[in-house]
């Protein structure tokens, strides 16, 4: 079984500037690292100061020629998004790649879901990608660039207790298609990735709370035709492809990265 394949050589990002939201940990951090390895200058935007600083410091120490920068931002705050865009302009002067990855899943049973919680999930997962793309679009050069939105298989498949999250992720796929159309004349390609089960801290927490973590891990892996859950680099490799010239004729699509989980007739 292959995983964590190395950086595809056709996917160079040399000389490019990239922003990755939610890059302090998990999938976003793996994307930041992959982009750095492909030669990009990367700025992480995240609300977690400690993890954000640590990620930027560790990645920069691993490759000082391609320093990774961190700016703290709470993407739920509308006003903060314009401030962050100003910081990116001062830092790079231009932008080639934006990855809208930051997201939260705060749902409970839909009867217990409050309007405030609904608004928070939609604000971070859907409104922020819209506003950040709007603010950063002027920084893309005439040659264009790439926007990548990290959605989820929840956009297309129902899981109990996940209503607001699913709506936000389905909205993100719709946003992807519409922005792809509106930004095509600027040569900015806009695509989404729909990951399935990816081992991040949320999954680890879920396992820790299980009475039989070993059985849970084995059962979840067995749901996947490819026989395992995903790891953050699986998503990062897809993001690298969509950011690079290897996907130059691809826009408005959604790339499912789920080990085949959702192709089963009963999934
Ligand atoms: N892990 C999975 O199985 C999975 C599956 C499908 C989709 N996704 C999506 O992938 C993305 C990353 O997920 P992950 O598992 O790496 O999550 P994670 O919780 O490990 O990382 C998310 C990051 O987003 C940041 N963030 C959250 N709210 C923010 C805010 N208001 N402002 C700024 N930053 C904020 C967090 O601080 C964190 O660093 C999310 O959009 C998630 O919905 C994850």
Q: Overview of this structure, please?
A:
With 267 residues, the chain is α/β, with parallel strands linked by helices. It has a single domain (17-195, 230-257), classed as Rossmann fold. The chain is 43% helix and 14% strand. It has helices at 26-37, 49-62, 78-92, 115-136, 163-183, 201-209, 213-222, 232-243; strands at residues 17-21, 41-46, 68-72, 97-100, 145-150, 188-195, 254-257. The chain has a 7-stranded parallel β-sheet, with helices on both faces. Helix 1 packs across helix 8 and helix 4 (115-136) packs parallel to helix 5. The protein is globular, with a radius of gyration of 18 Å. Mean pLDDT is 94; it is low at 1-5. Bound molecules: nicotinamide-adenine-dinucleotide. The site of nicotinamide-adenine-dinucleotide has 27 residues, from helix 1 and helix 6.
Write the layout of secondary structure elements.
Blueprint: E1 17-21, H1 26-37, E2 41-46, H2 49-62, E3 68-72, H3 78-92, E4 97-100, H4 115-136, E5 145-150, H5 163-183, E6 188-195, H6 201-209, H7 213-222, H8 232-243, E7 254-257
Parallel strand pairs: 1-2, 1-4, 2-3, 4-5, 5-6, 6-7
Helix pairs in contact: 1-8, 3-4, 4-5
């Amino acid at each position: 079984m292959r995983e964590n394949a190395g950086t595809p050589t056709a996917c160079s990002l040399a000389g490019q500037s990239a922003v990755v939201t939610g890059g302090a940990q998990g999938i976003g951090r793996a994307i930041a690292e992959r982009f750095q390895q492909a030669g990009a200058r990367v700025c992480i935007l995240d609300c977690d100061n400690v993890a954000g600083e640590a990620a930027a410091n560790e990645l920069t120490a691993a490759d000082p020629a391609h320093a990774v920068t961190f700016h703290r931002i709470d993407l739920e705050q509308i006003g903060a998004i314009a401030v962050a865009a100003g910081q990116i302009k001062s830092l790079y002067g231009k932008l080639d790649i934006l990855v809208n990855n930051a997201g939260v899943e705060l749902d409970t049973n839909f009867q217990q879901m409050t309007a405030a919680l609904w608004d928070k999930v939609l604000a971070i997962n859907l409104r922020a990608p819209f506003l950040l793309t709007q603010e950063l679009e002027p920084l893309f050069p005439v040659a264009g660039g790439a926007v990548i939105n990290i959605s989820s298989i929840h956009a297309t498949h129902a899981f109990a207790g996940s209503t607001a999250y699913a709506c936000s992720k389905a909205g993100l796929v719709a946003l992807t298609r519409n922005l792809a159309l509106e930004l095509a004349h600027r040569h900015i390609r806009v695509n989404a990735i729909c990951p399935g089960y990816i081992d991040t801290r949320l999954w680890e927490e879920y396992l820790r709370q299980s009475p039989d973590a070993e059985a849970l891990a084995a059962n979840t892996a067995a749901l996947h035709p490819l026989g395992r859950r995903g790891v953050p680099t699986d998503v990062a490799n897809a993001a690298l492809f969509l950011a690079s010239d290897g996907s130059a004729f691809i826009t408005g699509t959604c790339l499912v990265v789920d080990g085949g989980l959702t192709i089963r007739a009963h999934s």
